[in-house]
Amino acid sequence: MSGSTKQTPSVVTSFAPNPLTTTFTRPDDCSGIYRSGFLMMVDVSKTCMPSGFKTDAYFSPGYVCPAGYVSACHDNTGVASLTTVTCCPTVNDPSIRLGCVTTSTLSSIWSTLFCTWIAPKDSNFYVPLTTVANGVTTTQSVGLQAPGGLNAFGVRMVYQSSDMVTATTTTAKTTASTTDTSSGGSSTSNPSQSAGEPGGLSTGAKVAIGVVIPVVALAAIIGVFLWWRRRKHHYQPQSQTEPKPVHQAPNELHGTHVNELA
User: Fold this and answer.
1) Domain ranges of the chain
2) Is 63 within 8 Å of 163 (Cβ atoms)?
3) Of 19, 58, 118, 240, which is most buried by a Cβ count within 10 Å?
4) Where does the record place the region Disordered (predicted)?
5) Count of CB atoms situated within 10 Å of the CB of 82
């Protein structure tokens, strides 16, 4: 049995490319438990699987388990650059968590059932079992006890180290491009911003203009005020030496007018 386990990586490399490139979300009604023959199964419907799924094949390359599945195990035995991942489905009961089946037990009708869950030994563990007969669907509570349990196909993926490097580089470039565009790092990445600014002024130039203009205006006001004061002082002595004829003339006229009446 150990020999067949060592040969597993070489079998993986013989699979045709079948990338898991699209986001797949398992439908809500796929978390139910059904009976298939004498086995109790999860994810038996094709609609519960990503497009291109085959029970005896891997998605290659595949990096992330689809929504509704969890990463149950991974292995890179045999070829260090290759990693296989088995994703097992989730069910409505959070206390039930399917895990990977031991490779040596994958035989007969269980040969393609890569996920399993074994019920507790001490007492029955009740699960809702759904059956479909003559177009009628019924659900009833059924007790399970070890070695009984649940089985599932699971989703298997394989990738090599170069696939992860490519995926990481692509993600980094996408993130950098998004960041550069949102921050307006260059005029070419955000032309609308530079086109709307007069003269293409930088932030530093805008700050300098905002500081200089108020200072110049204040200096002009002070200059006008000083000029006005100098002019006032220049004409003030002349006004004090004048005899002020405007005020004396009315007095003389008034006095002459009174004398004539007398």
Assistant:
1) 2-171, 205-252
2) yes
3) 58
4) 171-200, 235-262
5) 20
Pick from 212, 90, 104: nearest CA to 152 = 90
> Using CA atoms, how far apart are residues 89 and 49, in angstroms rounded to an integer?
10
SS (H, E, C) the chain: CHHHHHCHHHHHHCCCCECCCCCCECCHHHHCEEEECCEEEECCCHHHCCCCCCCCCCEECCCCCCECEEEEEEECCCCCCEEEEEEEEECCCCCCECEECCHHHCCHHHCCCCEEEECCCCCCEEEEEEEEECCEEEEEEEEECCCCEEEECCEEEEEEHHHHHHHHHHHHHHHHHHHHHHHCCCCCCCHHHHHCCHHHCCHHHHHHHHHHHHHHHHHHHHHHHHHHHHHHHHHHHHHHHCCCHHHHHHHHHHHHHHHHHC
pLDDT of residue 259: 41
Tokens standing for residue 144: 């399970």
**According to the model, what pLDDT value does residue 172 have?**
40
Residues 82-93 have pLDDT tens digits of 888 999 999 988
Q: Is it the case that residue 38 has pLDDT exceeding 60? A: yes
What is the per-residue pLDDT across 67-78, written as a single tens digit (0 to 9) for each?
889 999 988 776
- 57 neighbors 165 (Cβ within 8 angstroms): no
CA–CA distance from 117 to each of 17, 22, 145, 196 (Å)? 30, 28, 11, 63
Q: What average pLDDT does the chain have? A: 68
Q: How many CB atoms lie within 10 A of CB 110?
A: 13
Q: Is the dihedral of CA 174, 63, 52, 13 positive or negative?
A: positive
d(CA 103, CA 5): 7
Which residue pairs from 250-254 have beta carbons closer than 8 angstroms and sit at least 24 positions apart in sequence? none
